[in-house]
């Protein structure tokens, strides 16, 4: 955790200094983490070039590290405002122009849609954890409605993604860390306009794939 915090703060400074190069800075930081924390990333499936919204299960800070390391496009993470409010560390949101939302403020959804549209026009891919918080990695938590609203309002192409093994690498709640392998599994992209029940079907598809990966 000490190493993680120090390198995050260094990365924030670099992103403010080189505002037009935040993506390669974050990717380099991700690769550095895989080395310093002693884990590898195995990708299963492909990131669709059509994707404009990436949704994932969430269990560890390493989820973000893994995606920043391997994802080919510049991700724009949508995070809860509590992260931005953390002294110093919270600059990880505004420095690379991520989006923060206040879940207690109903107007925040309007801000998310407006800023999401701007980031997509810049060629970025939005990224969300629809569970809204970290789980234990053994099952999916209930999805919040933010990803559904965002996808349908902006006509996004959604690619569900399963991440396995990151809590073993770093469990920040229990301050426990290990080396090992992280698996990132890209599922087929979804066009919400083609099926009104897409959100529920996506949840079940992710749930089934997570169970399959954990059993293997």
UniProtKB/TrEMBL annotation:
Class of this enzyme: transferase
Biological processes per GO annotation: CDP-diacylglycerol biosynthetic process; phosphatidic acid biosynthetic process
Which GO molecular function entries does the Swiss-Prot or TrEMBL record give?
1-acylglycerol-3-phosphate O-acyltransferase activity
Membrane topology (UniProt) = Peripheral membrane protein
Predominant location: membrane
Enzymatic reactions: a 1-acyl-sn-glycero-3-phosphate + an acyl-CoA = a 1,2-diacyl-sn-glycero-3-phosphate + CoA
Metabolic or biological pathway, per its Swiss-Prot or TrEMBL entry: Phospholipid metabolism; CDP-diacylglycerol biosynthesis; CDP-diacylglycerol from sn-glycerol 3-phosphate: step 2/3; Lipid metabolism
Query: Which protein family is named in the record?
Result: Belongs to the 1-acyl-sn-glycerol-3-phosphate acyltransferase family.
Q: What is known of its domains?
A: The HXXXXD motif is essential for acyltransferase activity and may constitute the binding site for the phosphate moiety of the glycerol-3-phosphate.
**Name of this protein:** 1-acyl-sn-glycerol-3-phosphate acyltransferase
